[in-house]
Amino acid sequence: MLPTLFLLSLFFAAGASKAAALDFCVADLMGPQTPSGYTCKDPAKVTVDDFVYTGLGKAGNTTNILKAAVTPAFDAQFPGLNGLGISMARLDIAPAGVVPMHTHPAGSEVLVVVQGAILAGFVTSSNDVYVKKLEKGDIMVFPQGLLHFQINARGIPSIAFVSFSSPNPGLQILDLALFGSNLSSKLVETTTFLDDAQVKKLKTVLGGTG
Question: How far does Cα 5 stand from its chain's mean position?
Fold first, then answer.
């Protein structure tokens, strides 16, 4: 009986040790970032602060052309998220502000409005459109990789918190990809059916060249 109990205690001890080693992989922000995330920080150097982030309590700066700001809490800002498949962000949209069409290639998004109202929507790969005015407390989901947008729908600053199914969901804003890059104007005109004057005007506004 005693040998059996001894073997069982060794089995559970080994299992507990292995589980503890796999509990988390706090990001080593000084190390390389791989397709699966950052490499792991030395466990001996992990502190409680790696699992706490306070940056979402402060409003983002909306004094820009979009009149909007996104404050991320991704793995680069919040190392404890590394490898957990989740992250968050704060969205501030001033009156007349907009977050233009954009995608998150690596994660789906859930948005909850906590102040004001936001007109939000997305376009599917078959070009179906889903749009809704969201009031305080409303939640909307945006499937991974689909173009979507948010617009202030009330004359007061609107605030939302968003969560993602990835510690680093990625971001590509369609307008900036077309008119804020060095993609040649001729190619933009050909692929968007816009004329030369429109393309050059938008490149001037958004800082593009070419």
Answer: 50
Place of tokens 């000084």: 30
For residue 4, the model assigns a pLDDT of 56
DSSP state of 44: G
The residue among 84, 127, 122, 85 whose CA lies nearest residue 101 is 122
Query: E strands of the chain, at which residues?
Result: 33-34, 37-38, 68-73, 87-93, 98-103, 109-115, 118-123, 129-134, 139-142, 147-152, 158-164, 172-173
Going by their DSSP bridges, the two strands 98-103 and 87-93 should be labelled as: unpaired
Cα–Cα distances in Å, from 147 out to 9, 16, 40, 100, 103?
Answer: 54, 44, 32, 9, 5
- Which 3 state secondary structure label does DSSP give 19? helix
Asked if residue 102 belongs to a known ligand binding site, the reply is: yes
Task: List pLDDT tens digits, range 134-175.
Answer: 999 999 999 999 999 999 999 999 999 999 999 999 999 999
- Give this prediction's pTM: 0.86
- Is 26 annotated to bind ligand? no
Contact 146, 82 (CB under 8 A): no
Hey, which residues does 96 pair with through a beta bridge?
Answer: none
